[in-house]
Design goal:
Helices cover 55% and strands 0% of the residues. By secondary structure, it is an all-alpha fold. The chain has a domain of 65 residues. Helix 1 packs antiparallel against helix 2. The longest helix has 27 residues. It is elongated, with a radius of gyration of 23 Å.
Length: 130
């Protein structure tokens, strides 16, 4: 290509908010942190379970990479490193937990976020007392 050609540079595709994560567990942790508007103390156990499941999936992927480097692995180790089986087993459960916590569009549709007035001006806007 010569300098005389008119070339429109390609625009990069924007990542979704939060963007690129190094691990599924990091993405789930970020999703749980984003639920602060509507989650309560009662949701903490489900959030921790979701993070643990995501960590198990991440760990399986790490083991699979190590087994690939090691080469010859026995059947038991191969099952322990089976990412597809782990995703088949834990993926739907993780999705269900995240949906129930309101981390998916379907899960959020019934959640009514109640914003707390921050100060006097917010109370006045709502018609409350001074």
């Amino acid at each position: 290509m010569t300098k005389s050609q008119n070339v429109t540079p390609l625009r990069s595709v924007k990542q979704p908010p939060g963007g690129d994560y190094a691990s599924l567990a990091a993405a789930v942790r970020d999703a749980c942190a984003g639920m602060k508007q509507w989650s309560t103390a009662a949701d903490v156990a489900a959030q921790q379970l979701a993070i643990r499941m995501a960590q198990q999936i991440d760990d399986t992927e790490k083991r699979a990479r190590l087994a690939e480097v090691a080469g010859d692995v026995d059947e038991k180790l191969a099952r322990w490193c089976d990412v597809a089986e782990t995703l088949d087993r834990l993926g739907p459960k993780l999705h269900a937990i995240l949906r129930d916590l309101g981390s998916t569009v379907a899960g959020r549709k019934d959640i009514k976020v109640q914003e707390r007035p921050a100060g006097r001006l917010a109370r006045l806007r709502q018609g409350g007392a001074q």
